[in-house]
Amino acid sequence: MALQPWNTMASAGTGWRSTPPVADDCHDMTDELLNIKEVAALLRLAEKTVYSMAQAGELPAFKVRGQWRIRRADLDAWMQEQRRAPRPKKKPTKR
Predict the structure, then answer these.
(1) Which of 27, 31, 37 is closest to 67 using CA atoms?
(2) Is pLDDT of 1 > 60?
(3) Residue in 10, 12, 30 with CA at minimum distance from that of residue 21
(4) Cα 79 from Cα 59, distance rounded (Å)
(5) Handedness of CA 25, 28, 32, 38 (dihedral sign)
(6) 50 φ, ψ to 5°?
(7) Do residues 31 and 74 make contact, with C-beta atoms less than 8 angstroms apart?
(8) What angle do CA 34, 36, 40 make, to 5 degrees?
(9) How distant, in Å, are the alpha carbons of 4, 5, 20 from that of 72?
(10) How far is CA 32 from CA 3, 21, 83, in A?
(11) CA 43 from chain center: how many Å?
(12) Pairing relation of β-strands 67-71 and 33-34?
């Protein structure tokens, strides 16, 4: 599959591509890079929250020319870690 420049008009006449196309034979979903907005949508959090988590080192994120990126595989692994992490027990409330 030949890749076309992602910023050219799509051949189907549907308009501009918002992200570069991925060829099935040279990439898989683990190579996918997500931005803050995409991660926020996946985690159902506000973009500001995800940005703060990235800045604090709470997410496996890195910067590319000043913009945060997160590998999908790293995010998936991080989510699995969160599921396995022990939860602090709640203290009983006094009544």
Answers:
(1) 37
(2) no
(3) 10
(4) 10
(5) positive
(6) -65, -40
(7) no
(8) 100
(9) 23, 22, 16
(10) 16, 11, 22
(11) 9
(12) antiparallel
pLDDT at 55 over 60: yes
C-beta atoms surrounding 68 within 10 Å = 19
The two tokens of residue 51 are: 């940005």
Pair of tokens at residue 90: 């709640």
CB 59 within 8 A of CB 70: yes
The residue with tokens 């988590």 is 53
Q: Give the model's confidence band at 13: pLDDT under 50 very low, under 70 low, under 90 confident, else very high.
A: low
pLDDT tier at 20, thresholds 50, 70, 90: low
- The answer to whether residues 68 and 35 touch, using CB atoms and an 8 Å cutoff, is yes
Q: Which amino acid is present at 34?
A: L
Please give the Cα distance from 17 to 10 (Å, whole number): 7
Length of the chain: 95
